[in-house]
User: Fold this.
Amino acid sequence: MNMATLSEPETDFSRLPELPRDVFTAPLQRPGHLKEDWIEPIQTQYSSEDHGVWNDLFKRQMKVLPGRAASAFLAGLEKLDLGRGGVPEFGKMSEELDALTGWTVVPVPMLIPDHVFFWHLANRRFPAGNFIRTRETFDYIQEPDVFHDVFGHVPMLTDPVFADYMQEYGRAGWKAMRYNRLKALGALYWYTVEFGLIEEADGLKAYGAGILSGPTEVVFATEAKSPNRIMLNVDRAMRTDYVISDLQPTYFVIESFEDLYRQTVERDFDRLYRSLAASFTYANSAVIDVDNVVNRGTQEYHLRGGRGSNATPV
Assistant:
């Protein structure tokens, strides 16, 4: 196997790691005014219209999240008072978050390179998009904006166990680069941090930011008959393809955040990466014999063509 050449797993997370040339990752051009950390010097000065978009997005989500969002997420919203009006000011929010779990939020202009993203997470910094969608892209935006990043992700960082999981995920990026398996590690992020479900006493709830920041997906993920819902198996999830521009055919479910932490941080990833193929093994709609299935979906939404054919998300 031709592996990337980081000689040993990095342990000094204070330094930005170099990205080996033979690691497969998306080429991103760093804007000229940014340093290697990709952090914007100041947060965007948002217009009254921008603040209005945030407020309207917030109100829309709060109509659908009660009863469907994880209790840890709803508690985080309250702790940080993200509904106080307008796009949150990162400095004040970071002070409050730091006091709770030692995390801060830093503004970045857009998607940033994998190795930079891992480095920030490893140092308990969450990079958040510095722009907000327009009225024209109100319902769907492909690149994560400040609403997705702050509303969707940051409340979960108030939970101590999940906050530790996110830091460990960032540290795990060093090893993934060494084995050239960023795509597999990205699938784990997708199926937990972005689109994860958790078992609570009164049913399945969403903790993933990709679900929590969209009104259609939060209902679809927790209630629709189409998607599969499968208990998380880290090895399985990392071998599974995923959908970027539509609702998910499959969601993975955790018992608790302690369970998520245990399954990932205690896993021997050296051994796993040596056994992983470069491409995904399983389709995003697959149910396989080792799965602990919560419910097997009909896949009706995707069989009817999904978003592109205006299929009803049932």
In short: Confidence is low (pLDDT under 50) at residues 1-8.
